[in-house]
Amino acid sequence: MSRQATSSRSLQRLCCAALAALAIGSLAACAGRSAALSDIRYDLGPQQEAASASASLPPLKVLEVSAPPTLDHDGILYRLNGDSQRSGRYAESRWTMSPARLLTQRLRTALAARATVLSGADAVPAPMLKVELTEFEQVFDTSTQSAGVLAARATLMQGGKVIAQRSFVARAPASTPDAAGGVAALRAASDDFAGQIGAWLGAQAFAGTP
């Protein structure tokens, strides 16, 4: 066997090995990008500034928002038009935490602009706000039109007694028929809900306050 033939085969093997390494690297890069795109995490984003003209509130205990088992997870839910008995979850997008925890943070931050916000564990006599979340999902009216819908019941207590209770619904249109559009719509609905709660609390007559 000639030295030239041996050298040629060696060069071919080196080229094949280089091509194989390049292919493996490309596949790994694609897999990495695919993995990143398949686990997108969302929160509710920056808080909107509260209206400066809003009246102040007395110190308020804002309890953790509660939710049924169907909402006690990090899945982003959607519901198709005409299928009111069944909801689905986006496979590749999730919340950073459960909707109830996200809404607790949102509500406390919004109310803190008008009141001293306390937790239920604070040993301070103060009115107590309890919120029960019943709906937090993207609802499709058609295949391209949807809205973020939030429904909840709020109970205001003072001195161990219920002084007010009301059900709320907030709805905001989604700009796109996907998880990102649903998240943006639910963010807007959450801010609307926080505003409704603030206005409702402002209309209450708290004992011991002017």
TrEMBL record:
Q: Which InterPro entries match?
A: ABC_trans_aux
State the source organism's domain of life: Bacteria
User: What protein name is recorded for this chain?
Assistant: ABC transporter
Q: Which residues form a coiled coil?
A: none
**Signal sequence segment:** 1-31
For this UniProt record, give its keywords in alphabetical order, as a comma-separated list: Signal
Q: Which SUPFAM superfamilies match?
A: XCC0632-like
Query: Domain ABC-type transport auxiliary lipoprotein component, which positions?
Result: 42-197
